């Protein structure tokens, strides 16, 4: 067997990533050798593979769902925005350029060949490759240079299913319109639909699905129910808006430990905090104003793709002053990667922002210098007497000049800094850190002794596999994977843009 499938979506955050992961887990549980693939990803949420390559965090998670080792070929092109118009281009796990949005097109032909080679490599090594699209395939202004949606599907003759988020509203118009905007040759590969995040009476939805099939000639292959707790390694900050605020009380009547995460404009690797949120009695929320920090027991400055610019935003909003007051009062503050850099006395950046010397918050005895070379690593260490494994992705090098050691950074009083992402996924370290924070905050909180983040992650991936097995037409999925899109699918008017040259 050597099959493939492309999961496209009507919008960003429609459910492509979780559906791709669910299909990978469903196949892996049946003994199928399967791998995920996303030709081009735009995300500030990335991860480092075992061999030191940077890929999108969602593709790393999908590889875990497939029970295979993540590798650079699964996400050959990663774009990391540093502003509204410029992005760092990461190819096969290594940064190669900083480009303006209009300059990126000049790289497309070379990247198209890289994408084709990576997909061929994965297809040769695995029975099935489940590809994920980006944004929407109906972004007709970008179709001519597309290498991730219908451009990929056409080049590799991939059947395509389109997922739409019914919780947003307008799902029928979105699904129909997505097909109708495509030219006939692209439409010929659209084989069916999946409705995501449905809650309500199925009998009320059914007539709409029947009419959608009558209008497009394509069936709905399944309806996935709205399910709590599936916030797995999201690619962009749209997913943060969908996360529910935690209850103000923890279980067993204990006081909740309240954690406020500063939501920088260019926040990156926000999944660092997922392991904290998995702890019973811990409430994690995102903060954009000083008032959001008022009752927080711990304030976290997370990673960012634009340290200097987001530091300026921190000052404009008044958050910097509030964080300084908290530190002076001995209330816990944690900086991770870019957040750690902000806590230093001084930042010298001629690489990311070109701003030169910038004064930091001065809450940690450290200085930061930005190197052109990017650090990509999987470090190991210990803290609180517990082992810690993590990963690093940064240009900024923090030179620590004092304080007590804390992972690769330092601690002064209740202010902690580290460049290590993923440290909180280490259960024993996380519990020790939270206990220290609770003590310093004067909070009556004891971390649960038996929470395993890895086990919770694995259970969530199994839930995704269950959703596919229980709610999708898996027979139809098999046929698409093995045989491709059915022939003779009708063209949906108006037929979209003129054919691609």
UniProtKB/TrEMBL annotation:
Active-site residues per Swiss-Prot or TrEMBL entry: 337, 421
Protein biosynthesis as UniProt keyword: no
Pathway stated in the Swiss-Prot or TrEMBL entry: Cofactor biosynthesis; adenosylcobalamin biosynthesis
InterPro entries registered for this protein in UniProt: Class_I_gatase-like (IPR029062), CobQ/CobB/MinD/ParA_Nub-bd_dom (IPR002586), CobQ_GATase1 (IPR033949), CobQ_N (IPR047045), CobQ_synth (IPR004459), GATase_3 (IPR011698), P-loop_NTPase (IPR027417)
Keywords for the protein's UniProt record, in alphabetical order: Cobalamin biosynthesis, Glutamine amidotransferase
Family of this protein: Belongs to the CobB/CobQ family. CobQ subfamily.
Protein's name according to its UniProt entry: Cobyric acid synthase
Organism: Actinomadura yumaensis
